Amino acid sequence: MNSKLVDYFNHGLKKTSFVLIFSAISGAIFPLAFAPFEWWPIAFLSIGSLLYLILYQQAVSLFKLGFVWGVGCHIIGSSWVYVSIHEFGHAPWYGAGLLTLLFVAYLALYTGLFAFVTGKLLKKYSQVWLLIIAPLVWLCCELIRSYLFNGFSWLSTGYSQLNSPFGEFASYLGVYGVSWLVILTSTAILLLIINRKPRIATITLSVVIFANLFLAFDVIEEKTQFDDARLKVGLVQPNVPQEIKWKQIYFSKIMSKLMTETDKLWQQDLIIWPEAAIPAYEQNVEPIIEKLDELARQSNTLLILGIPDYNDELDKSFVALKSYGKKRLTYHKQLLVPFGEYVPFGDWLRGLIQFFNMPMSNFSPAVTPQQPLMLKNYSVIPAICYEVAYPNIMSQLIDKVENHDKPMFIVTISNDAWFGDSLGPYQHMQMAQMRARETGLPLLRVANDGITGIVNNQGRLIEQLPRYQQAGIKTSFLLQNRKTYYRQYGMSSVLFLISLSILLLVLDQGLRRFNKKR
Predict the structure, then answer these.
(1) Do 365 and 407 belong to one domain?
(2) Parallel, antiparallel, or unpaired for β 443-447 and 453-455?
(3) Mean pLDDT of all residues in the chain?
(4) Which residue among 23, 68, 273, 504 is least enclosed by CB atoms within 10 Å?
(5) Is the pTM of this model over 0.90?
(6) Mean pLDDT, rounded, for 177-188
(7) Is residue 335 within 8 Å of residue 153, measured between CB atoms?
């Protein structure tokens, strides 16, 4: 590296403005590693830059450093939140901007916490311990963000590596384990570049590369099951604009769109409509439901669709996925989208601005344990929209399948029209693909305006419909299941990594104190 450039950069690290701008830019490029760009090496550059600043800058506090990195990251990567609030929540631009900035600031707290804790721990340990500290703290912060207050797992680092060589680890470590591996590798590369403990850094990178090659050859994973099981499917993408979806005068037009595409598909084994495909409570459109059920039974089809559900006894509304035809089954959404499907502190917030009074924003989460859809020849693991971002929900449903000797696959329905023309739908699809890769199960995704598609058991998108187009997919796909390590043992590998890292740190401190006393 040019010595003058290094000198200039090191001089800049003494200036507050330089450090903050560099940190913000480092965070802002991080989303480029995710869909739709998928420039996955950017993740290592972005995180490596943050780690370098933690090590060498002294102009700003550690927390502020990480916070600014997080603001840069989420103001770009989560920009679809503004689109949802402004364009479809009808909040004025300044109100939508303020709410989005508050949300971004909340998310940035976690990277601020990462930088603070990592920097403080490094004062007790030598720089080589960064290989243990940085992945551990990052992983813990990411897990807290993904589960606290129902969680927000968007832009979890592991997703950026879905189609990179590091994606091979997802079947064993899951998305959070891949996050840990990305931070470990970023740290090793940084230590190698700055020539601090190059031997240990080289060994670390060598182990990662060797492990990747080992997994790429599929040495330890169980063989594919159900090689000859095929299912004829039809996926319906009606492309209903969000601004008309809940207006009663457009109900007939919406149903016409759905039936036009479905009439071409009735001979398929399975037909899927998107989330809230019928924009009315099931109880209010019983003649339509009975007609759909009859058509499905006549063609020996299972029709799965999204429709709101109301329970008179409980006086609660649910976001539901229901099946008709071969078998009538119901699944209620377990994890709701705040401000979209329910309004936190609704008694205080409703009425302040139109965004808090959006139609169909008074749902309740499922009140009873939910089951997968278990049928004669296969089982369906359901996920409604946001739920597919949570691997624990998928794992819990898979564990409830009665017969694991039959094929399984994931069906996720969504209404990504809320995201508008933003990064959101592509990031959402990437998360769905990760669930397929983790579990070794194929996945069918149907969205109102896209992305609708079929994902194989390796997480590869093998067929899809273009966005903003009324269309359908009519095809057959192989029900190949891989019995992945992650599907069998879930988060155990992640918990092992956390426990081992903490143990090593504690042992080091214990040995130091022991040696001082001698």
Answers:
(1) yes
(2) antiparallel
(3) 90
(4) 504
(5) yes
(6) 97
(7) no
Q: Quick one: 198 and 252 in the same domain?
A: no
Annotated active-site residue in 168, 275, 341, 438: 275
Transcribe 233-296 into DSSP letters.
EEEEE----HHHHT-GGGHHHHHHHHHHHHTTTTTSSEEE--TT-S-S-GGG-HHHHHHHHHHH
Q: Give the list of residues 6+ apart from residue 166 with CB closer than 8 angstroms, or none.
A: 40, 178, 181, 182, 185, 212
More confident residue, 319 or 221: 319
The pLDDT of residue 337 is above 50: yes
Residue 341 lies in a domain: yes
Residue 106 falls inside a structural domain: yes
Domain span holding position 362: 230-483
- Beta bridge partner(s), residue 321: 306, 331
Res. 171 pLDDT band, cuts 50 70 90: very high
Cα separation, 389 vs 412, in Å, equals 11
- 385 has catalytic annotation: yes
275 catalytic residue (yes or no): yes
**DSSP letter string over 448-488?**
SSS--EEE-TTS-EEEEPPTT--EEEEEEEE--B---HHHH
Same domain, 287 and 171: no
The active-site residue out of 326, 385, 406, 438 is 385
Q: Give 350's pLDDT tier (boundaries 50, 70, 90).
A: very low
Residues 212, 234 within the same domain: no
Helix pair angle (170-193, 198-216), 10° resolution: 150
Residues 168 and 267 occupy one common structural domain: no
Asked if residue 39 is part of any domain, the answer here is yes
Whether 257 sits among the annotated catalytic residues: the reply is no
Residue 203 lies in a domain: yes
- Encode pLDDT of 42-100 as tens digits: 999 999 999 999 999 999 999 999 999 999 999 999 998 888 877 766 778 888 899 89
| Selected catalytic residue, list 333, 341, 387, 438 | 333
pLDDT of residue 221 exceeding 70, the answer is no
